[in-house]
Amino acid sequence: MKPETILDKIKPKKVSLSRQLFLRPYLLEGIIVALLVVATILINYKMIKDGINGKVDLKWHLTWIQHFSKQLSEGIWYPRWLAGTNYGYGSPTFVFYPPFVYYLGSFLKLSGLNTQDVVITLFSLALFLSGFTFYLYGRNQWGRTAALLGGFAYMTVPYIAFDIYWRGGLASVFVQAWIPLLWWSTDQSLSEKKWRFTLPMSWTLIALTHTPSLLVCAIVWFPYVLFSILNRPWKAVVKTIISAGIGWGIASFYLLPAILEKRFVNIEVMRGIWGGAAANLLNFRDIFTNIDKNQIVYIFSHQALVVLLLMIIAFVIYRYQSNITKKIQPWLVFILALVFIMSSFSEFIWNMSPTLQMLQFPWRFLQIFSFVGAVVFAIVVQGLLQLPLTPRFLLSTVIIGILFFNFSYSYKLSRKYVTLRNPGRGSIEHLSHIVTILEDPYTNKLRDVEEYRPILNEDPSSPPIPLQDQPKIAVVSGEAKFQIEEWKSYYRKFTVTAEKSSKLQIRLYYYPAWHLYINQKSYPIKMSKDGSIELQLDSGLYNVELRYQWTLAFTIGVIVSFLSFATLIFFNRNVGRSPHILKQESI
Fold it and tell me: Which of 86, 87, 407, 548 maximizes the CB count within 10 A of its CB?
């Protein structure tokens, strides 16, 4: 008599065979999700237990979550201007920074979480999604076991740990979760197994999450798709590229203003951060001389060593399964291309391309490098599972060792810096600033990044520096009295009684989305020497209004987004009704 399995024991005896077959995959997927949740907790346990460490960019993300969520609560559906930053001068932050993660953070704040717990939840969610989307990408290619172990390898790659615990890259770490989704939807599109609905949405997610990562993915994705013409129909390649274009079109409400309005702010300063892109290229001499001092060099060396070990295992597997080389070879070419673009050998390319220089750091390609390394890991695991018992057991110890090798870096880095809930005797970087962000964010005490400040007419190379505790309105010259009636994020109203010709300075940075109305008539806005708005009035009584409105670029972007989404829906419905598709589904 055949013994009952665990699945048989947990289901009612009278369930039909068809229902058992239906339930079994869902139970397996549920177990896999539970394992990924456990892995997320183990990897990010230090942050979950002891809080954030306040490193590098985290102070900006904390500030943005606070003010983005506050303005959402005011009824501003897309807070592009953060009115309370730069000590009250404001900043067009979300004209240039994608909003997706901050909508998520605002939703979590509505659930009752404080800002620190919101950030911890977001980092944990990004970590979980990285493993989950990698599993989705690989389960049909390599099987559930190999895809799940590949997901664990991806979750523990050093670059993700670096992004979470040192850079505080709240938005960029989410792109690690979208990269497997992008490759899965691309392969589906090229194979024409399903219509290209998920591919546009993958690109939209990346575009609305992190702009430098969007550029990284685009640079790598285009050659990948173009080279696929060697073994795919050219029509499938063209349709795939068009599908990607639809995804970028859907994100146009963000992308178009970010591109067309950058001339109004100090965005070019990004090219010179940390010495510029050329200064941050990988030099292979550093692997032998600077590996202990430079985290990026270590991360690259760590991942390269893992790939090398995987190649040795693949060589052993080749003796039993010659087809493993066919699976791995394209990804090895991919890895070599990534190594080249990150290394000093590609300096001439970076020097020729102002667009590439806006990435600031060539090592941003470690995002893709980490993904490709996890893919090679999964392929090797798939081959290993088909080996005879003895070599399978021996090589499995190396695979487990690689997972622990990855995890050790996350473990050490997460415990290297003191945290808000458990500082001990250490000091937290930016502590006073972070405490202000968390406890008193709305009283004009917070700055914002300098690249989003206005460009001064007299000195375009130098952004203005906001001054703290400045009055909302100041009389610079002449004689005038004023009365503030409303002072909201997107709307300011006050009356001015000028005894004689007077100049007023308003604590509000110039930006073309702001429109000035005096006695219900539109007037041009002038920028003062410090980047704020100034107002010259003759003697008299005036009702003054400042309104933040849609710019032309934003209006066009919204229209393009709507048309792109409508195209996606229309095309999807038509393809779904195609007799060819219906015939395939009936089979």
Answer: 86
Distance CA 339, CA 382 (A): 25
> Count of CB atoms within 10 A of residue 491's CB?
12
Contact (Cβ atoms closer than 8 angstroms) between residue 524 and residue 516: yes
User: Which residue(s) pair with 546 in the sheet?
Assistant: 492, 516
C-alpha 561/C-alpha 83 separation (Å) is: 26
Number of H helices, E strands in the chain: 24, 9
| Closest C-alpha among 371, 220, 363, 357 to residue 283 | 363
178-235 confidence digits (pLDDT tens): 999 999 999 988 887 665 688 999 999 999 999 999 999 999 999 999 988 888 888 8
Q: What is the secondary structure of 161-208 as a DSSP string? A: HHIIIII--TTHHHHHHHHHHHHHHHHHHHHTSS-TTHHHHHHHHHHT
Q: Do residues 248 and 214 lie in contact, with contact meaning Cβ atoms separated by under 8 Å?
A: no
pTM of the model: 0.91
**Cβ contact 472:484 at 8 Å:** yes
Q: What is the pLDDT of residues 532-587, one digit of tens each?
A: 999 999 999 999 999 999 999 999 999 999 999 999 888 776 655 544 433 333 32
Q: Name the strands in the sheet holding 514-518, side by side, starting at the edge strand that comes first in the sequence.
A: 480-487, 491-498, 540-548, 514-518, 521-523
Spell out a b/e string for 495-532, using b for 16 or more CB atoms within 10 Å of the CB, else e: ebebeeebbbbbbbbbbebbebeeeeeeeebebbebbb
Q: What angle do CA 513, 61, 246 make, to 5 degrees?
A: 60
- Model pLDDT for residues 65-102, shown as the tens digit of each residue: 999 999 999 999 999 999 999 999 999 999 999 999 99
User: CA–CA separation, 296 vs 301, rounded Å?
Assistant: 8
43: pLDDT strictly greater than 90: yes
3-class SS string, 87-112: HHCCECHHHHCCCHHHHHHHHHHHCC
Region 157-180 average pLDDT? 95
Kindly report the number of other CB atoms within 10 A of residue 586's CB atom. Answer: 6
- C-alpha 112/C-alpha 207 separation (Å) is 28
Residue 498: in which H helix or E strand, if any? Answer: strand 491-498
- Assign 278 a pLDDT band (cuts: 50, 70, 90): confident
**Measuring CA to CA, how many Å separate 347 from each of 261, 280, 356, 362, 391?**
29, 10, 11, 10, 44
Nearest residue to 346 (alpha-carbon basis) of 250, 254, 244, 278: 278
In degrees, to the nearest 5, what angle opens at C-alpha 424 toward C-alphas 419 and 430? 45
User: How high is the mean pLDDT of the chain?
Assistant: 88
Instruction: Say if CB 304 and CB 245 are below 8 A apart.
Output: no
Cβ(225)–Cβ(188) under 8 Å?
no
> Pick from 416, 494, 221, 224: which is nearest to 333 by CA?
224
